[in-house]
Amino acid sequence: MADFESQKKDLMKEVRSVLDEVEELYANAGNDGSEKGKELKARLQDRLSKTKSKMSDLEETLVDKARATAERTDEMVREQPYYAIGIAAAVGFVAGILIGRGRN
Q: How far apart are CA 89 and CA 102, in angstroms?
């Protein structure tokens, strides 16, 4: 989980950096559309590519974690079906009480 948080922080840092460069690009685009503009566009394209790659990696991590959680849940339900039914019944009971109180 710490690895996921680290990846999330790195991704957000990268997105902020890209946005800063976009702002810089547009601020300087009107001033001189020459070499500096081309350099900023190239840097922006590089950053965008890196950010897309990191987002793809993060998405894969999220999908893998969701799949693993679903598999563990399925395994638990198969191994202890009455336990799972009991939990579902308890959650339904509590939800019913809360909904009933909300109507009064």
A: 20
The upper half-sphere exposure of residue 92, i.e. CA atoms within 13 Å in the direction of its Cβ, equals 6
Q: Output the CA torsion 61→66→72→76 (10° steps).
A: 170
Q: Both tokens of residue 99?
A: 């909904």
3-state DSSP assignment of residue 66: helix
pLDDT digits (tens, 9 = 90+) for 5-24: 777 777 778 877 877 777 77
- The whole-model pTM stands at 0.48
Joined tokens for residue 9: 């922080």
Among candidate residues 1, 2, 13, the one with its CA nearest the CA of residue 54: 13
Handedness of CA 11, 14, 18, 20 (dihedral sign): positive
Q: How far apart are CA 95 and CA 101, in angstroms?
A: 10
Q: Tokens 């790659």 map to which residue?
A: 53
